[in-house]
Automatic annotation (TrEMBL), chain A:
It is a multi-pass membrane protein. The keyword Transmembrane helix applies. Its main location: membrane. The chain crosses the membrane at residues 12-29, 35-52, 72-93, 113-135. Belongs to the CPA3 antiporters (TC 2.A.63) subunit B family. It comes from Meridianimarinicoccus marinus. This is Na+/H+ antiporter subunit B. It is found in: Cell membrane. Coiled coil: none annotated. Keywords: Cell membrane, Membrane, Transmembrane, Transmembrane helix.
From TrEMBL, chain B:
NDH-1 shuttles electrons from NADH, via FMN and iron-sulfur (Fe-S) centers, to quinones in the respiratory chain. The immediate electron acceptor for the enzyme in this species is believed to be ubiquinone. Couples the redox reaction to proton translocation (for every two electrons transferred, four hydrogen ions are translocated across the cytoplasmic membrane), and thus conserves the redox energy in a proton gradient. Residues 113-387 form the NADH:quinone oxidoreductase/Mrp antiporter transmembrane domain. Pfam families: MbhD, MbhE, Proton_antipo_M, Proton_antipo_N. Residues 50-96 form the NADH-Ubiquinone oxidoreductase (complex I) chain 5 N-terminal domain. PANTHER family: NA(+)/H(+) ANTIPORTER SUBUNIT, NA(+)_H(+) ANTIPORTER SUBUNIT A. It comes from Meridianimarinicoccus marinus. The chain crosses the membrane at residues 12-37, 57-84, 96-113, 119-139, 151-172, 192-217, 257-277, 286-303, 309-333, 354-374, 394-415, 436-456, 482-508, 556-577, 589-607, 612-632, 638-660, 672-693, 731-749. This is Monovalent cation/H+ antiporter subunit A.
Length: 139, 758
């Protein structure tokens, strides 16, 4: 079943969903959002795409196999958890760096925390798409 | 018959020369401890491993452990040299070498470990490596069965032993074997002594293959010959003997110890010697003589008599030397001729002179002929039997029977293949030649050592037997001397009787074999019992699986919800939650809207007959729940709930819409039953929630997170800060579960897609 309306609308909606998912991921530390939610939104985008265009199209759009994305995400999360060990901290402790900090402004913050959240994002995205695609294809 | 086809000769690879180098290095290291130990000292090294469970990697070297360590590493050099040549060019030679070296390290850990839990870990490691080595020819069903059987039997014993260790540690408060030595009286007087003894003996008897746990050892001969020589004669199967020796100062000295070891040891020794005569495969003959030796060692550990213990110490070394040599000889013969059948081999003396000499020397030691060390060993066994007050006659009778049969077995293994007639030899299709030198070093060296120690028993006495006896009896002065000529005494007369009987048995052995063969068919076999046990276990598992796993989703869910209801009800009763005054807050308009939406969704799901409508109804309920989170200002949870709900609807539709249309609704009786369960669970959950809310909420954690979130973690969204910073390790665990679950589901779905029914 292919709906021309759904296919057309999907193009715009999926793009918006994906941008929105990254937005939700990045703002998560201070506002509602984060890796879990971002990953769910991103997965919803691809699920919608799969419903409209079929899983083979969705797989092509995703470029990498979803199970690989999940595995990479797990690796990123694990690595970011191990980084504090290099500074003598406990694993998964938060380490922050404020780039260009001045007395007036705290500068641009980066930390292993955001890397961890990106890992979570990738695991959630990859795991859900693994399930949905497999279900769509095999049943 | 050959378990190994010869391969085109190639150069030596790392898999060939690395293992003997490792073994040789270890042997040299252990040799350096020899002067200290021979001088009456002990050594101890250790560091903490899991201090909270008092598991330490501590190593203790005394006469007992050093003797074992020298045997393991020394014979290891020979066996590894041998297998480097024996398996040269085998596609899995590297894997074999890895297993063999791993085994050696595990075995060394076993005999050197001072901590009981450390000993257990190494014990199980030897079991696992033995499993891998027996099943090395994994394409053969026979090998796989033998490997699994050995794993199960010795693994079971290992667990029993662990339980015994834990009880000992509970009573004495120490895990260190070196500290236990002085605590024998505490254990012997404890009411748990009987239990400890049974558990420890189960461990020792399964590992050292005592009747009725012996059946795995002859089957283990499915392994390549170097493995049989190393694990299943010289080292691993002596693990049980080692355990008994190690526990000797702590547990021996009671009637229970004396009689259990005497009976099991004697039965094993005699049974195995008779079975050895019955075999036609030379490797099987040797396997049963190994059983006989193990039985004898157990038998003599029963007694606290210094002669008996000295006999154990001597015979332990004697047996390892000649048995490893003979196994390697059989390996050479098999390698050259392609058969190990005693009825067909003959006349190899001319083609394989070096092997013949090695076989002859080793067999003479095995037969207990002077001036070989085997003679001294046998004399000491008789002396030990004569000196033991209680079980003496059993010891002498069992030793006499076993030694005479052993004499005959030595003849079968070493005389017939080399001196007998070559008429029935199968044609191997190539000229029979001597094995290459790395295969000959082991048999020659080991059998020559048997002669050397016999001529100079003092060497063995000072370095090995006296320290070993001291380790068991606590006093080097109790060790007896090793003499080649101890004058005309009862032991010597018994030896002469042994020789006479042995020669008679050898001459009659073909007739005996036929008689045993005829009788054997009518007797039950332990192997058959084992198969029956496994089959029954399988049937029980199937019955139990069918009972618990009905495969009907309806029943699973019913079970889950009934358990939830029971759990909640019992929790409420336990907390004495009465139906007291429940403060129902005055509902606002938005609350009523959420309630109406959720209620409508629920009603639709229950009433509709259309599957898609039911799924949509469930989705509505989910959105209602998300709205509840929004109303009570938990946006993060609400967003997650909404997204998850959406994805669940999609997933559910994908799966459910492809199911066949239900012909009719479930029966009214069933619906009523389900309705009752649903109403009960709902009521109980509501009551629980009201009860929880009516208590003051402990806000300590929430307060901490609210205060610490921004200053410590630079984040204002507390939920996210908790997820990625304060509780990041939990989150990592959760995402791992998510990833693994997805992969598992993928594997299951793919399997179905391929047509395999799961």
């Amino acid at each position: 079943m292919k709906s021309i309306i759904l296919t057309t609308a999907t193009r715009i909606i999926v793009a918006l969903l994906l941008v929105f998912s990254v937005y939700m991921l990045l703002r998560g530390h201070n506002e509602p959002g984060g890796g879990f939610i971002g990953g769910l939104i991103g997965a919803s985008g691809f699920v919608l795409y799969a419903i409209a265009n079929g899983t083979s199209e969705a797989r092509r759009a995703l470029r990498a196999a979803p199970e690989q994305i999940a595995a990479v995400g797990l690796g990123v999360a694990a690595l970011s958890g191990l980084v504090p060990g290099l500074f003598g901290n406990a694993a998964f402790a938060g380490k922050w760096l404020f780039l260009g900090a001045t007395p007036d402004s705290k500068g641009f913050p980066i930390s292993n925390i955001i890397a961890f959240d990106i890992g979570v994002y990738l695991v959630v995205l990859g795991a859900i798409l693994t399930l949905v695609f497999a279900l769509e294809e095999e049943i | 018959m050959a378990d190994h086809a010869p391969h085109p000769s190639q150069g030596w690879t790392a898999a060939g020369y690395v293992p003997p180098v490792i073994a040789a290095a270890l042997f040299v290291i252990f040799l350096q401890a020899l002067p200290t130990i021979a001088g009456g000292g002990t050594l101890r090294y250790g560091f903490s491993w899991v201090p909270s469970l008092s598991v330490d990697l501590s190593f203790f070297i005394d006469g007992l452990s050093l003797t074992f360590a020298l045997l393991i590493s020394g014979i290891g050099v020979m066996v590894m040299l041998f297998s480097g040549s024996y398996l040269k060019g085998h596609p899995q030679h590297g894997r074999f070498s890895l297993y063999l070296v791993s085994f050696m390290l595990a075995m060394l850990g076993l005999v050197l470990s001072d901590n009981m839990l450390g000993l257990f870990v190494f014990w199980e490691l030897t079991t696992i490596t033995s499993y891998l080595l027996i099943g090395f020819s994994h394409a053969s069903e026979n090998s796989r069965r033998a490997a699994l059987q050995a794993l199960f039997v010795t693994g079971f014993g290992g667990l029993a032993m662990l339980a015994g260790f834990l009880i000992i540690a509970g009573i004495t408060g120490t895990m260190e074997l070196s500290e236990l030595r002085g605590m024998g009286d505490i254990l012997r007087e404890n009411s748990m002594y009987g239990g400890i003894l049974v558990l420890i003996l189960l461990g020792a008897f399964t590992k050292s293959a005592q009747v009725p746990f012996h059946f795995w050892l002859p089957n283990a001969m499915a392994a390549p010959t170097p493995v049989s020589a190393y694990l299943h004669s010289a080292t691993m199967v002596k693990g049980g003997v080692y355990l008994l020796a190690r526990m000797h100062p702590t547990l021996s000295g009671t009637d229970a110890w004396l009689w259990s070891l005497t009976i099991f040891g004697a039965v094993t020794a005699v049974f195995a010697s008779i079975m050895a005569i019955k075999q036609t495969d030379l490797k099987q003959t040797l396997a049963y003589t190994t059983l006989m030796a193990l039985g004898t060692l157990v038998l003599f550990l029963a007694s606290p008599n210094p002669y008996a213990i000295t006999a154990v110490a001597t015979f332990l070394v004697v047996h390892s030397l000649y048995k490893a040599a003979l196994f390697l000889v059989i390996g050479c013969v098999d390698h050259a001729t392609g058969t190990r059948d005693a009825r067909r081999l003959g006349g190899l003396m001319r083609q394989m002179p070096v092997t013949t000499v090695a076989a002859g020397l080793a067999a003479l030691s095995m037969a207990g002929v002077p001036p070989f060390i085997g003679f001294i060993g046998k004399e000491l066994l008789y002396k030990g039997g004569l000196e033991s007050p209680n079980a003496g006659p059993i010891l002498i009778a069992a030793t006499l029977a076993a030694s005479a049969l052993m004499f005959a077995a030595a003849g079968i293994v070493a005389l017939r293949p080399f001196w007998g007639s070559a008429d029935r030899m199968p044609d191997p299709g190539r000229p029979i030649t001597e094995a290459p030198w790395p295969m000959l070093v082991g048999p020659v060296l080991l059998s020559v050592l048997g002669l050397l120690f016999g001529l100079a028993p003092h060497m063995l006495e000072v370095n090995v037997t006296t320290p070993l006896v001291a380790a068991l009896l606590g006093d080097p002065a109790k060790a007896k001397h090793l003499h080649l000529w101890a004058g005309v005494n009862a032991a010597l007369i018994l030896s002469l009787i042994t020789f006479a009987l042995g020669i008679l048995l050898y001459l009659l052995h073909t007739r005996l074999r036929d008689a045993l063969e005829a009788a054997g068919d009518r007797l039950f076999t332990f192997d058959g019992l084992w198969d029956g046990f496994l089959a029954r276990l399988g049937r029980f598992a199937r019955w139990q699986g069918g009972l618990i796993q009905s495969g009907i989703l309806n029943r699973y869910l019913t079970t889950v919800f009934i358990v939830i209801a029971l759990g909640l009800a019992s929790a409420m009763i336990h907390a004495r939650m009465g139906p007291g005054p429940i403060a129902v807050p005055k509902p606002e308009f938005k609350h009523l809207v959420v309630f109406a939406l959720t209620f409508a969704g629920t009603a639709l799901t229950i009433i509709t007959t259309s599957r898609i409508a039911a799924i949509a109804g469930l989705g509505v309920v989910g959105i209602g729940v998300a709205l509840i989170f929004i109303v009570f200002s938990a946006p993060d949870v609400a967003i997650t709930q909404l997204l998850v709900e959406m994805l669940v609807v999609v997933l559910f539709s994908v799966a459910a819409l492809r199911l066949p249309v239900l012909p009719r609704r479930s029966a009214p009786r069933e619906r009523v039953f389900h309705g009752i369960i649903a109403a009960t669970v709902g009521t109980l959950v509501t009551l629980t929630l009201l009860g929880v809310v009516s208590e003051p909420i402990d806000r300590r954690l929430s307060d901490f997170f609210e205060i610490a979130s921004y200053p410590d973690a630079y984040g204002r969204n507390i939920v996210n800060v908790i997820l990625v910073d304060f509780r990041a390790f939990d989150t990592f665990g959760e995402v791992s579960v998510v990833a693994v679950a997805a992969l598992a589901a993928l594997a299951l779905l793919r399997q179905r897609g391929k047509g395999g029914r799961s």
